[in-house]
Design brief:
485 residues; Fumarate Reductase Iron-sulfur Protein, Chain B, domain 2; Rossmann fold; 3 domains; 4-stranded mixed beta sheet; 23 helices; globular; iron; transport; 4Fe-4S; LutB/LldF family L-lactate oxidation iron-sulfur protein
Amino acid sequence: MQADCTSFKKNSAVALQDPKLQGALNNLGSGLQARRAAVVSDLPEFEELREDGRRIKRQVMADLDTYLELFETKVSEQGGHVHWASSADDAREAILAICQNAGAKMVTKGKSMVTEELGLNDFLAEKGITPVETDLGEYILQLRKEAPSHIVVPAVHLVQDDIEKTFVKHHTKLAAERDISTPESLVNEARQALRERFFEADVGITGANYLIAESGATVIVTNEGNGDLTQTLPRVHVVVTTIERVIPTLEDLSTFLRLLPRSATGQEATSYVTLSSGPKRPEDLHGPEEFHVVLLDSGRSELLGGDDQDVLNCIRCGACMNHCPVYSSAGGHAYGWVYPGPIGSALTPAIIGIEHSAALPNASTFCGRCVEVCPVKIPLTDIMRRWRVEEHQKKLTATWGRLALRSWTWLATHPRLYQMFSGIAVWSMALFGRRSGYLTWLPMAGGWTRHRDFPAPEGTTFHAAMSSRIKADAKGNNAVGIRYE
């Protein structure tokens, strides 16, 4: 998927004026947020699980090369193959070679955000190989030629009427024979269309929620069962994922299987948890003849050992998006790339560079809800703040903004002047807002005052008020009971 993160403000303005999109996004609060809150409240040890999850992921990142090498060894012992891809180009070429060696004309795909990062569908199509998405949401979006807008619920921006029209347009024969006016009938419609594809595919491509180092198994967690069909029916199974998805043991998996569904969809457990360990053995009735794992780096290893390393702990639950006021207003497409919401704002600059994604770390109110609900406690706001600092240091911010900040910094280091200018500013704003109590215009703050009024200050400055209190306290007259230590 081609990144276009520079248009976030423009995309957001369009999204805010789209009533259908706003109606769809409103379901996040009444649906995913509410369900998460309910299942979390029923699990008293949830906070302990969060700590365990963070501990396990940090343990892995501290010794990532060892765990990845162990995983590769175990995969090889079972007859599989691991392909190391330092860049998106390397990953695409590795997947293409596997498909061409298998003589593939069609591939089925289980949901994998990494293949979206690679732009794999368009790449394969250009090479004469037809990719077919089998996840319901991804399949609908493929028909509509749209990108996912959420990492767990990719079609969250659509309403039922959109899906009906899509099937009527693309399933001419099937849709004409049946009523597809209910959610159940829409699911059956997709099943009918996809059933033959599962049997026709030469290669099945899935993602992986986790890689088990001790056994060489890959794990996918789904609710539809399409992942199982994608990896067992074709002759070749290709797992496409990233290096940070490895965890040490099967026991560690149990921790994440309790965190992920609760955080993602508000379920105690998902319908399917599937572990794959190499190609089928002689005694197996079903399974692929070849098993490949493509491990993508694409800038992730550069985060190891740095302040932003914790962003690699992400388990792709989407909870940060579901609770983010910015995402809930603008939707996923506004972010312009694969990973939207707070996790996208923290991760995307590491992958494509802050030069191409500076708008994303600024797309946050820093309210902290994303940090509060993250199942592995990623300090997303701290990471976004550091990206803002790097943006400023590289002079990617507007010139007037850097000058304003430099001026404020100079004033802040000269207390007497700062207090004098603060007093003048408060007096001026109080003067202009004396009639209504609000300011409808402020210099260099038009983005705020165009849409909302700014309350005019009352009384004096903070410094002056605190100075008065301190003096009163010194005289033993601290009526408000404040201690200054």
